[in-house]
Amino acid sequence: MNKYFFIFFTLTISSFFFACDPEELNNNSTLKFSENQITFDTVFTTLGSTTKFVTIHNTSNAPLKTKIRLASGNQSYYSINVDGVAGVSFDNVEIPAKDSIFIFVKVTINPGNQNTPFLVKDSIEFITGNTKQDIDLIAYGQDANFIVADSGPANLRYKIVAGANETTVWTNEKPYVVFGWAVVDSLGTLQIQPGTKIYFHANSGLWVYRYGHLQAVGNKDNPILFRSDRLDEWYDTDFTQWNRIWIMEGTKDNIIDYAIVTNSFVGIQMEAFSEYTGNKTIISNTIIKNNQNSSVIARWADFDMTNCVVTNSGGCSLQLEVGEWNIKNSTFANYSTLGRDSTYPVVYVSNKSTFDNSTFNSSANFENCIMYGNFSRELVEYKYANVELSTSYKNCIIKTYQVLPSFVSCLRNTDPQFVDKSKLDFRLKSTSPAINAGISNGVLFDILGNPRTGNPDIGAYEYSN
């Protein structure tokens, strides 16, 4: 009798302990979080830190064991405290059935450290059995003006930075970091001062809505910078880090002078939304480079361009579709092999829109421009028969096997002899055929401020010893 009682007692106790073991090997074990993302929206001006907390719930009927860790480990800007214990990694953290624990998250930011990214990201990882979950951590890493989208659908989030009849000025005191689309609304004006730096997060951009007005005016020593918010040196030449500058039809001319636009999907796109107003965008003394698609697109839009360098594009350097365009003393050079083939010439000119196949009388006038790359035909004209396309190329260097009647004093298939095209240095060597080969047209200085005296050089740069 005692022997049977002992066996029964042993089995009962064993099954009790077995039933209470944490379900650490249950593949379906999941945790519930009070938040799936923790955002620290404090903008630090000096070294500082802030703390938030999240609650981790075990909603099952049995206790669970989970592993908790910071994804970046000891390299993280964050630290965590799990139920009173500080660290970066915790094994076998037990959460009783129908119970919860607290995790306190602290971020420490030194905004004076230029190596600190604008957006400091990490995550808390949870491994429960074979189930992996995480909570994203996001904080602002530098002292900057953060433009964060607060309107619109999920695929087109935006924030209005200049409303109707409002003038907004972006100064060079602190950089601007844009998440989503920064929108200049109808009848609004955005003025950007010399030396202002604007950094765009992935898929973000600057959108000048119809009848909005942009005045981005830098100077030779203090250009305006439009680029990705990824600050690592590797990203300096990477493509598609943000979307584009998108300018629609306006009631005034839009101006971009002395700027650098780099690392986007499209550099600058000018396009009428609902009507062709005849107002133009004026781009001068600007470098547009390292763009995944075409660097400059003008579709149903007029623009003037002077002293610009457009290079390293996955598509065309300059894509013109319906409008009136006047381009002087600019260098369009594309030796990129990333995604570009012969269907994307350096310069494309047409009186037909590839967006909706609409057509209209169009004209393009080029003076003292270089259009060169690694394909045999870097200038393509596409003329739709029922409307006019008027073109003129005066004193240009063009890579093409065609001879167009609109060529006047142009050099074909003549190497411009750039200083170092592999480093995107498109200044002229002393032996360049572009030197003194231009025509006087009222452009008195080059992109660097060097005077153009006598017969000017072709391209954006005047040769200088």
- Total number of beta strands: 42
The end-to-end distance, rounded to whole angstroms, is: 110 Å
User: Describe the biggest sheet?
Assistant: 11 strands, parallel
Rg, nearest Å: 30 Å
The helix-and-strand class reads mainly beta
**What's the rounded overall pLDDT mean?**
90
Descriptive account of the structure:
The protein has one helix and 42 strands. It is mainly β and 465 residues long. Strands 11-14-17-20-23-26-29-32-35-38-40 form an eleven-stranded parallel β-sheet, with no helix packed on it. The chain has a ten-stranded parallel β-sheet with strand order 13-16-19-22-25-28-31-34-37-39, with no helix packed on it. Strands 12-15-18-21-24-27-30-33-36 form a nine-stranded parallel β-sheet, with no helix packed on it. Strand 9 and strand 10 (131-140) form a beta hairpin. Mean pLDDT is 90; it is low at 1-25.
Core attributes:
disordered N terminus; 43% strand; 465 residues; 4% helix; mainly beta; 2 domains; single chain
